[in-house]
Amino acid sequence: MSEELIVAHAGQAGTDFLIYTGNFCGYCSALKRLLKGKGLTFTELNFDEHPDYRTPVVQATGHRTVPVVFDIRGGQTMFIGGFDETNRYLRKTS
Length: 94
What we know:
This protein is of the alpha+beta class.
C-alpha cells in the first residue's frame, strides 16, 4: 500500500516532481522556490491537509521529515529525499 499510494499520486500528477510538504515548513518553501526558479513543475500534497498520506510515505521512503521529494519525469518515480538532497540532485542533473 505504501509505494502504491506514491505511484498513484505520481501517475496523476502530470508534473516534473511530486512533493509532500507540511505547513510552516521553511524547507518546503525553499524547495518550491528552487523548483520554480529552475522552471520545473511540481504537484504538492500537504501532510497537514492529508494526514493519512504521512504514514505510507514514511513507510515507503524511511524519510520522516518534510519535504519528501520524488522526480517523476520520464514515467519513473524516483525518491530523492528532502530539500538538501534535491538541491544537490538538481545541480548534478541540470
